[in-house]
Every structure is written in structure tokens, then in C-alpha cells.
Amino acid sequence: MSDTNTIISPENLIYKKTDVLLDNTMHYCPGCSHGTVHKLIAEVIDELGIQETTIGIAPVGCSVLAYNYIDIDWQEAAHGRAPALATAVKRLMPEKNVFSYQGDGDLAAIGTAETIHACNRGENIVMIFINNGIYGMTGGQMAPTTLPGMPASTCPAGRDVSHDGAPIKISELLAQLPGTCYVTRQAVHTAANVRKAKKAIRKAFENQQANKGTSLIEVVSTCNSGWKMSPVQANKWMEEHMFSYYPLGDLKDE
Amino acid sequence: MKELKLMKGNEAIAHAAIRYGVDGYFGYPITPQSEVMETLMAEKPWDTTGMVVLQAESEVASINMVYGGAGCGKRVMTSSSSPGVSLMQEGLTYLAGSELPCVVVNVVRGGPGLGTIQPAQSDYFQAVKGGGHGDYKLITLAPASVQEMADFVEDAFELAFKYRNPVMILSDGIIGQMMEKVELKEFKPRWTPEYIEENFPWATTGKKKGQERRIITSVELDPYVMEDFNYRLQAKYKACEENEVRYEKIMCDDAEYLLVAYGSSARICQKSVEIAREKGIKVGMLRPITLYPFPEKQLKDLAAQVKGILSVEMSAGQMIEDIKLAVECKIPVQHYGRLGGIIHSPGEVIEALEQKIIGG
Amino acid sequence: MKEEIIIAGFGGQGVLSMGKILAYSGVMQDMEVSWMPSYGPEMRGGTANVTVIISDDKISSPILHEYDTAIILNQQSMDKFEAHVKPGGTLIYDGNGITHHPTRKDITVYRIDATEEAARMRSVKTFNMIVLGGYLKVKPVVKIENVIKGLKKSLPERHHHLIPMNEKAINRGMEIIHEMEVEA
Questions:
Q1: Do chains C and A touch (3 or more CB pairs under 8 A)?
Q2: CATH number belonging to domain C2-179
Q3: For residue C47, what pLDDT is reported?
Q4: What is the pLDDT of residue A224?
Q5: A18-253 has CATH 3.40.50.970 classification
Q6: How far is CA B40 from CA A58, B11, B166, C169, C181, in A?
Q7: Which residues pair with B312 in a beta bridge?
Q8: What ipTM, to 2 d.p.?
Q9: How distant is the Cα of B116 from the closest Cα of chain C, in angstroms?
Q10: CATH 3.40.350.10 fits B248-358, yes or no
Q11: CB-based contact C73:C110 (threshold 8 Å)
């Protein structure tokens, strides 16, 4: 009979949490994609050895407290303004690594202008975009990316495209801009997808170090609380509905 | 060596910023202050001092760029005029809530709405009473000459870093657009990363090994912690009120009547004092230089000496509320001022004084 | 000495730059100066005016309601500013396009047909320098040598070859300005 100490003895370890990810208990709901993406960012920062030179910009939304989980310097922005903060941080300290972390409401609704113009100027930053098609923090309201027919508390009968417009494919839009060098759409609901997403994040940071311009990583995500599903159902629903509207893969890689 | 130049107030702001060693300017064009960014772009300080100058997509973006830069311990600033400054109010309350130092210049024009591009002083309330949400204050300096436009850039940054709070230079279309002689100060080097590291441990410059991570934020979900933070902010403002009041008194020693005016209106009123004195009317003037903190005590003292006060502002009467609070209804206080971009003349001020205070 | 001047005319007549050169000339002889323009859409072809004050002492208000001298270069400005010349003050105007000539008898009125003269000199751009010359003839508030220095300060280097032409225009202005009898 083995006790816990035997299990975690060095010769038995096959996985180690990066030190860049703090031990604070995450406030995210079980099944939420944020935690996984945080972990991937922390691992990339660790692997690239850039913990001392990375500044993160947190949004308003569920990940408003992202700074509690990744052990780097952080600034918390007003709703939608993260790309403006990141612009100044990078321009004033070009030798640092700067990334913004935003949800769909932050990046694709209230902050659309800041997003588009930071990308259009080709700010040499990484933008992480969590698209779960709903406003999680405020309790499940319609997002700019909520799918047609998908219910939310401000469209209980489902999104009516004739009334609310179609969900915005902001990554496709941003890929059109000459300032972006890398625009990709990823997911983190399976081990294989997690591995791909991490590669993408790493590439984005490497692009920044090579002064290539703006890299945008959209992560199509679940919000099982907001969607009112179990985590397993949410993953399935995402595969069946989200991926057809938001297909995974690189939109641009220059 | 003393270097005298003839320039507009807006140009003086730009030159002073470069010479003082400002790290970044982020702005959006709007009349009557576009010369600030135009001058910076023509001077190309990125080639000399390394200053970053960037035209943002909106005033919302520019004030948030200021937030990002300020969070790194850099000396950053923006400038705009009334409608643009309204857009910046969100950023300003976040800056105050995150305790970040920065300088915002408002070259005020007449409103409300898109209003007029002509000068006004109708943004006093917005500047000194908050503007954005929450219990915060903007330290507000009111220049009355092109020289002060230049000098206050340095003063504003010093106050901003002393109190870790945004500072507004509340100017107007007259001071921004007029040309006067200016003596520009010597070039000072920008702060080095080492200096920032040493003096501003809160700045997000990259977390060193063994160091606590720095977090620039204004969010706090625990109301008790948030209350404590608010008390701390208020204590800071109290210290500012005790230490930073600036004002100018003109011919107050024997004054029987007092004009109170700031910025360009103070220049106009100074002429009114000259004309009134020639007519034998004993008028003096108090010019608040800091609008927040307001020279309350000085006004209270003067209220014991003069028979009445005329507050002269190019607004419907905003600063008058602070004057009334200061003098505690002990003497009559009246307002005079033209609106919507019309500038009152020195003669009109005297007429108003005669009708509303001396005759009233 | 203190001289409070309004220069008013059409945008494009060089009203603002004439004021600027005058202000610079004041700086050159270590006097206090202020230059306050009307700004905005007015600058683009409508009326333009600038208040210039040159003084031995510190200047209080850059905004005035009456002037020692009004230099008037179109009819709208005549209608607006004739009444604002101080009693005993000076009004200088270009007769081109003026239908209602000045009527005040308590001021000294000069006429300078600078538009006509500039056309004759085939140098329309020096129009404002002709006017400035005329003004300095009747109100020598700054020395001509300081005006030339002021010109050098306010003109970009690449335009410095135009200075002799401007100097010629100033001299011509001094010659052609003449006092008017105001008719009742």
C-alpha cells in the first residue's frame, strides 16, 4: 500500500506544475477553459525564460483577476481597453514581453476600436482572446459572439439575427489587417487541442521577440455555467455548434 | 542660458514636455489643442530624448495608453479639449483608483455637447468635482499665461508622482492659442529604468526573481478592503489640501471688493482691476492656481476684509460654489461670466462688479 | 509704452502672420508681447483677426474691448472694429473693397492702398508687409531692424531669401500711407 509521499517522490513524477502558475485557488467554475489557458501561458513564459520581462494586461470579465494566478507583473485594464494599455507598455519598454488577455465582450464588443487599432498599428504584442459566446461574469448575457438561436439571459428565446445581428467573427476581421502577423483559432477541451493551443501561444511570444507584429490567439471556449450545461455537455455542445461557426486553425501565419 | 521664445500655449506644453524628460504622449486631435501633438510630431523627440509620441484612435484609447505607461512608472501625458476630456473620464477614474501618476491637459472649449471651438471655462465641475465615478479627486492646475503652460508641465508631474494621482492642467482656448514670450527650461534626462526600479516599487517593469509581483488594479471585491482603500485615498487628498494650495493675490491689501478668477479670466480681470483702480474703486483679485485643492482658507480670510466677491468665470457659475463654501455666506458672492465661447471684456467685468456687488 | 492693436481682415491676407512678425519684433527689443488670434473655421477664408499687445510692462489681459490702433483690411472688420478704437486712437485701413469709409472724428484715420500697391509690385504675398510698413510709419513702436530680426525668427530658413522683398514692401508701405480727412 503506497502513501501519498511515495506517489509524489521524484522518481515517480511525470508532470510538474510550472512555478509561474501560482498556487492560489482559481475562482473559475469547474469546467471553465480559463484555467487551462492560464496554465498554458504560464508554461510558455516559463519555457521561454521570460518571467522577469513579461507584463500581462488583464481585462474586465471572468478573467479580471487573472493576476492572481500567473506570477508576473500585471495591469488590470478598464473594460475593453487592454490593447491600449498593452500598446503603451510595449512602446515605452520595447524590450519587455507584453500580452493582453481578453474575453469576447471585452475584445469584440466594448473594446472593438482598441482591438482593431492595436492590430492595425501592428503593435508588437500577444493578444489572447477567450471566446465562449457569452458574458460569464455578469451572469450569462448575450455576447457579440453568441451563436444564432443560442439562448442567453438578454436573449432568452435565443439570439435573433434579424434583431441583434450575426455573431462577429472578429479574428477573421483582424486577419485582414496588415499589422497582424499571426491569427489563429484554437480550443483547449481535449489533450490534443491543449497541445496545439500551447504551441500557438509559444509561437505568438516568439513572434513578439522577433518583432513581427500583433499575434492573436482566439481560444473557442466553454462557459458551462452561462450555457447552463455540465462541463461534459458544454464541451460536446461547443464541438457541435461553436466549431462550425468558428472553425479551428490558422487564419494567418506570416 | 536663458532662451526666450514666442509661442502658443499649446506649443509651450509640447516643448516643456520634451525638455522635462516626459517618456510618452498619447493623444487624439481636437480643436483648440491640436498644436500640442503637432508640435511634438514636428520636434521628433524620439530621435533626441527617446520620448514616445503616438496618435491614438480616440481619447478613450489615449487615456488608457496613459494608464499603461503610468503603470510602468513612466512619465506620460495626454492633452485634449472638452468633448475629448469627457471621453477620458472613465480612464481618469481608473487612474485615480489604481493610484497612477499622469498629466492630462484640457484646453477647454464651450459646451455642452460638441459646443463651440471657442474658449470657455465650463469644465470646472468636471475637473475638480470628479468627472468620473467614485470618490476621487483630480489635482487641478490652472495656468494663466503661456509661461505657466510650460512651467506647469513640470509642476504637474511632480504633484502626480508625489501623490500617485492624475493631475489636470485646466487651460482654455485663449491660453492654448495665444502667443507670449516663454522662457524654456534646460533639457533634463528622462528617468532611467534603474531610477524607476529604485523609486517606484509599484511599477510593472517585470517581476524580478524573489520579488512579489506588482499588480496595477482598481478592483477589490471585498468591501471592507475597499473601504480601507477609500479612507487611504481620502487621507491622501487631505494631505494634498494641506500642502499644495497655490494662488496669487493682486492688489488685495487695501481691497474693499474682490474678484476671484482663474486662468484666462484672471488675465482679463487683472485688466479690470487696473481700470477700476484708475476710477478709484478699491478692487483686488484672488487667482486660484490650484483649483483642487482650492484656496479656501485664503478666501475665508479675505471675506473678513472685503465687502463682496465677484466670481468671474467663462461659465454659468461653477467655481462660485467653492467660493460660497469657503466664505460661509458671510459676505455677498455673485457670479459674472459670458458663455458658449464668448469672452467677457475687462469693461464688462467692471460693469458687473458695479451692478452686482458695489450697487447691490 | 503700451500699444494695443487689432488687425482684422480676410483669412489669407496674412493678418495672423503680420501680427506674429510685430510680436516677434517686440520680443527682439525686449518688450512684453501677446498675440491672440481668432481661430477655427474663421481661419479658412472667412474673417480673421488678431490682437497684438506690445508693452514695456507685464501684460494683463490679452483680450481687449478697445484698441489704440485698429488695422482694418475689409468691410466686415470696419463694421465691427471702428467703434472699438479708443478716443484719440488710430485707424488704418486699406481702401480696397471698402464701401463705408470710417466716420469717427475723435480718432486719426489713415488709408493705405496696399492691395493695389502689392499688385503693382507684382508681389501679392507681401501685401501684409506693405500694411505693416504703413503702420510703423505712423506708430513707430518697434524699430525696423527688429522687424527684420523678427521676420527671420518667424520665417523658416528656406524662406529667408524673401526677406529683402519684404523689406522693400515695408519701405513702400511707409511711403504710401496717408492721413484721411473724415467727412461728416
A1: no
A2: 3.40.920.10
A3: 80
A4: 93
A5: yes
A6: 31, 8, 21, 34, 51
A7: B336
A8: 0.95
A9: 10
A10: no
A11: no
